[in-house]
Amino acid sequence: MSRRQARTGHDQPSGDTVDQSTDAGSRVWTLPNLISFVRLLGVPLFLYLFLAVEADVAAIVVLAIGGTTDWVDGWVARRLRQVSRLGELLDPFADRLYILATLLAFTAREVVPWQFTAALLGRELLLLGALAVLRRHGYGPPPVHYVGKTATFVLLAAFPILLLATTTPAVATAAAAIGWGLAWWGLVLYWVAGAFYVVQAGQLVRRGRGAAA
Predict the structure, then answer these.
(1) pTM reported for the whole predicted model
(2) Angle at 44 between CA 192 and CA 71, to 5 degrees
């Protein structure tokens, strides 16, 4: 994989498609990017509802919408052929921001134990280290792996259910069982995806050193 491919995660097209792809890739104001921006606005809204005014029902709704729309921006981008470099960065950034903000808020109000939060944050630190190594060797972030997308979707689905378990006694037992089942599954997949990214980063660095030699 070349350095350009490592940054984009796509093969280089040919002919007229190159110009169209390049033009689309540099666009900012597209529908999928707008969806990602709206998802980002949901993060401070959730924090305000959950921590400032403790409107837990509204916070659950915001979390549920943020989690279930995780796939929408990517689907729209592919459907309308509006895939852009900004969108490729915004989508995983919005996912991580949702996860980190929710974890910290949940830990503050003791919805989840700090050990669970530490386990997820440890994976983020590992990934930051891998990204720093890639940047030092001239590479951008690797393409998002399907295992990582699955882990993100599962975690974003688990969070509103866990919050529901603490706010609605009538369904607390069932919601806690489902929520924690999804949360632990998501945690394992999150670390598996992190391992894939580290291995991929190591392969790119070794390949670059071999080419330089």
Answers:
(1) 0.74
(2) 45
Cβ 46 vs Cβ 101: under 8 Å: yes
User: What is the chain's pLDDT, residue by residue, as a tens digit (213 residues)?
Assistant: 445 444 444 444 444 443 444 455 567 777 877 888 888 888 999 999 999 998 988 988 988 888 777 777 777 777 878 777 776 777 778 888 888 999 999 999 999 999 999 999 999 998 888 888 888 888 877 777 789 889 988 998 999 999 999 988 999 999 999 999 999 999 999 999 999 989 888 888 888 776 766
Give, to the nearest 10 degrees, the angle between helix 172-212 and helix 114-136: 20
Q: Which of 41, 43, 64 is nearest to 163 (CA)?
A: 64
Provide the 8-state DSSP code for 170: G
Closest to 196 in 3D by CA, of 138, 150, 135, 136 = 150
Angle of the 56-68 helix axis to the 146-167 helix axis, nearest 10: 160
CA distance to 82, 89, 141, 192, 199, per residue, from 133 (Å): 30, 18, 10, 19, 12
